[in-house]
Amino acid sequence: MGKISLRVQEERARRKLAETIEGTVIHQRQGELAYGRWDFAVFGPAARGAKAVLRVGAAEQMMIQRAAVYLAAVGDPGQVGQPGMMTIEELSGGDIPDELAGLEVYHVAPLRPIEITRREEAESPGRLRDMVFTEFGGRNIAIIETPDEAAWSVSVLRYLHETDETLPDPVMAHVRHRLRDTSLRFAPPPGLAH
Question: Is residue 193 part of a domain?
Fold first, then answer.
């Protein structure tokens, strides 16, 4: 996946994004990755009350006519004056908190839309945590705990990013290997969070 870049226009959204990334706990990673598919169970407490929510799903690499789609954003969006390639709502199917609404995704490589196949609520975070570990512990699925169930998509994106750091996609690794100078680092323009 490389880097995930989100355009953040409001300080409230920037704080929520930072809190979610820092508060995410990855309890279990997939032991074996299936090519083009990253399975996960993400859970966390609801903002109000003692309830908690579990989402089970997968990120699957987008394919066009059996060819993987790899995207790269080059240039300063502020100078170019163009919006991102999609909003975070589009990437996560619209299931996000109000604080994160309107964030624009500028770079995801490869593009892996997230699909939730199961969603359920529990009366308490502790009870849900026990159920998640009983059901998914030892299975080939990531277990991710998010500090706020409404911001689950940010926690999943963090997991995908960390997975790519340790187990890079073979095609992207080959492309990066062929680059002459991979040491270049560019500071993100104001308003972008990685």
Answer: no
Q: Provide mean pLDDT across the span 114-139.
A: 93
> Whole-angstrom Cα distance, residue 160 to residue 59?
9
Cα–Cα distance between 43 and 130 in angstroms, integer? 11
* DSSP 8-state class, residue 133: H
185 belongs to a structural domain: no
Answer yes or no: are the C-beta atoms of 150 and 36 closer than 8 Å: no
Q: Which residues pair with 185 in a beta bridge?
A: none
Query: Does some domain include residue 194?
Result: no
Q: Are strands 52-60 and 63-64 parallel, antiparallel or unpaired?
A: unpaired
Question: 86 in a domain, yes or no?
Answer: yes
Residue 103 and residue 45: Cα distance in Å, rounded?
22
Number of separate domains in the chain: 1
Counts for the chain of helices (H) and strands (E), in that order: 6, 11
**pLDDT tens string 51-66:** 999 999 998 877 655 5
Domain span at residue 166 reads 5-177
Kindly state the helix (H) or strand (E) to which residue 15 belongs, with its residue range. Answer: helix 11-23
